[in-house]
Specification:
The protein is about 30% helix and about 25% strand. Strands 3-2-1-4-9-6-10 form a seven-stranded mixed beta sheet, with helices on both faces. A two-stranded antiparallel sheet has the order 5-11. Strands 7-8 form a two-stranded antiparallel sheet. It has eight helices and eleven strands. The N and C termini lie far apart (about 40 Å). It is globular, with a radius of gyration of 17 Å. It has one domain: Spore Coat Polysaccharide Biosynthesis Protein SpsA, Chain A (Alpha-Beta Complex). By secondary structure, it is of the alpha/beta class.
């Protein structure tokens, strides 16, 4: 198995909260930010950090995403594989659906509607040196109301809870980036599963999920307000 993990970008969501802004039939991961489809910013970062294989887990409007990638020329820069679900399968179900094309024991999973400038070399070093199997990248926000919260031991990083409970106070939240052993897929049949609801809580009970702190901010374009300010996040004052 290659030492560089395959990357799975979860890009099949319905994007219902954005339809008032992007239209009824637009896949949110290819919405333009300053005339460039959002997913290409994610691919740029992965290419910069020398990842080799990207698996796009697609569902809703998969043809539009594929057309976007084929027109972009990015397949000349990095290996891109399409895994298409015929019906919504959830975040973990989408990974299970892609199992046959995964070539590494560890996978980097990224939500296709989030972006952060991550030092992937450093997080992979932490992941390996601490012999983790499951890791969630977390960031401290002043207002955690929009997100589920992640509670973990300051000393070991071991996560104690991954909760959909909202908090208006300063909280650590998931930034939608995970390093995962593919072992969890072995017990799953094809179906609809959520990483957040069906997978992580059980793994946390076994004390095998860890937090990796990410100090740089992150962008989540899942609601109109954050999408509106996405160009400022990506380009500053441009």
């Amino acid at each position: 198995m290659n030492n560089i993990p395959d990357v799975i970008i979860l890009a099949g969501g319905l994007g219902t909260r954005l339809r008032s802004v992007i239209g009824e039939n637009k896949q949110k991961v290819i919405v333009d930010v300053l005339d460039k489809p959002f997913i290409l910013y994610i691919l740029d970062e992965l290419i910069l950090h020398k990842f080799e294989r990207i698996i796009l887990a697609l569902g809703y409007q998969s043809k539009d995403v594929i057309d976007c990638i084929e027109r972009s020329g990015y397949k000349e820069k990095i290996s891109i594989i399409y895994s298409i679900e015929n019906k919504p399968m959830g975040t973990a179900g989408a990974i299970k659906n892609a199992e046959s094309v995964i070539s590494t024991n560890t996978i980097l999973v990224i939500n296709g509607d989030t972006f952060s400038k991550i030092d992937y070399g450093e997080i992979l070093k932490q992941y390996r040196n601490r012999e983790m199997k499951y890791a969630i990248l977390v960031h401290k926000v002043l207002d955690g109301e929009r997100y589920g919260t992640v509670e973990f031991c300051d000393t070991t990083g071991q996560i104690n809870s991954f909760s959909e409970k909202k908090s208006k106070t300063c909280s650590f939240v998931s930034i939608g980036v995970y390093l995962l052993s593919v072992d969890f897929l072995k017990s799953l049949s094809l179906g609809k599963y959520s990483l957040e609801v069906d997978i992580f809580p059980n793994l946390i009970l076994n004390n095998i999920v860890f937090a990796i702190r990410q100090d740089t901010d992150f962008l989540d374009i899942g609601i109109p307000e954050t999408l509106k300010h996405s160009s400022e996040f990506l380009y500053g004052d441009k």
